[in-house]
Amino acid sequence: REAQDKMPIYKGLENFKLLDKMGDGAFSNVYKAVDIRTGQRVAVKVVRKYELSASQAGDKHLNREFKKKPRVTERTNILKEVQIMRGINHPSIVKLLAFFESQEHYFLILELLEGGELFHQIVKLTYFSENLARHVILQVAHGIRYLHEERGVVHRDIKPENLLFDKIAIVPSKNSPTKQFEEEKEDEGEFIPGVGGGGIGRVKIADFGLSKVVWDEQTMTPCGTVGYTAPEIVKDERYSKSVDMWALGCVLYTLLCGFPPFYDESINVLTEKVARGHYTFLSPWWDTISASAKDLITHLLCVDPAQRYTIDEFLAHPWCNAAPAPAPPPT
Ligand code: ADP
Ligand code: MG
To answer: H or E stretch including 238?
Structure first.
């Protein structure tokens, strides 16, 4: 109730009652909301059209004044995000239900995913067992396969914060990493069955704010070409898809051990590590993880994009097909 009192009121969003804030960005806020006309629970992503002037941006108590200068890049970006999402229909991808705008905001009405970010599940669980990691990563991979192969879309921002759980699946007790959790779920922690196998629910890809179409659906050729496609453009298209595969490798690595493959306090050092593709399977955390999982990661965290696995190569890898394999998402 208290939270509701603090919910902002957006002109143009009168048909929706905001319940809870779920996400916070530089230019967007995401709320849990209910469509008053239908009772449907949704997520609303509110994107501000105008920049706040620098002096006012941080101060809630000042009478804010918008610079009435549309953020042109933001405008084209948000419309691109919406256009890409409109063409998408897959169980591993967050659905866009509606889009509209007011004078000062854009509103994306999205399918509500109440399970929270994969990021938070990793933090809560410390790390995932190989079976649980497989269950999660295969759902993401099928979403990426659909984007890459059927829609010609590169997501470009695959990361645990943009991977959302459908339902709250696991509330672990203290000191209950997943490995233990799976074996002792009857008496360890509270277990809430999810939709999919393995107890943990469906995972969906969100946030198409940086995504890009690289494949023209009409002509079935790389974008902007009509048949006389130069090799560098064909390569370019393949390489741009490979950024998602690198990111998928980072997510898989993080799921299995609980920390990311590349990390440093200093952004410069971190950048250097990534550029060199310098990571290790750190002992003791990686000692008990299968050689097959490590082999798969090696083919994803591979500096040369031409050598890096494509999504089809990923899905064909033995680790992905090891039992117990979850059923592919229904289409
Ligand atoms: P940004 O461009 O600001 O990163 P996102 O689309 O990633 O915007 O949304 C920000 C955060 O809001 C996400 O990381 C997630 O926590 C939450 N969020 C976004 N979409 C949904 C949704 N459909 N259901 C539940 N939470 C969501
Ligand atoms: Mg995001």
So the answer is: helix 231-257
Q: What integer pLDDT is reported at residue 238 of this predicted model? A: 74
Q: What is the pLDDT of residues 86-105, one digit of tens each?
A: 999 999 999 999 999 999 89
Q: Of the ranges 184-198, 236-250, 292-306, which is most confident?
A: 292-306
- Does the C-beta of 45 come closer than 6 Å to ligand 1? yes
Say if residue 45 carries a ligand binding annotation. yes
Q: Which tokens in the block code for residue 204?
A: 């969906």
Q: Who surrounds ion ligand 2 at CB < 5 A?
A: 162, 207
259, 286 Cβ separation under 8 angstroms:
no
- The reported pLDDT for the residue numbered 70 is 53
Query: Which ligand is nearest to the Cα of residue 45, counting in written order?
Result: 1
- Ligand 2 mean position to 158 CA, how many Å? 9
* Backbone φ, ψ for residue 253 (5° rounding): -55, -50
C-alpha separations of 151 from 90, 143, 246, 323 in Å: 11, 11, 19, 30
**Residues pairing with 33 in the sheet:** 18, 42
- Number of H helices and E strands in the chain, helices first, is 10, 16
How far apart, in whole angstroms, are the C-alpha atoms of residue 134 and residue 91?
17
**What does the DSSP assignment read for 48-66?**
ESEEEPHHHHT-TTS---E
Q: Looking at the predicted complex, does its ipTM rise above 0.95?
A: yes
162 is in an annotated binding site: yes
> Considering the entire predicted model, what is its pTM?
0.83
Cβ of residue 252 lying under 6 Å from some atom of ligand 1:
no
Catalytic residues: 157
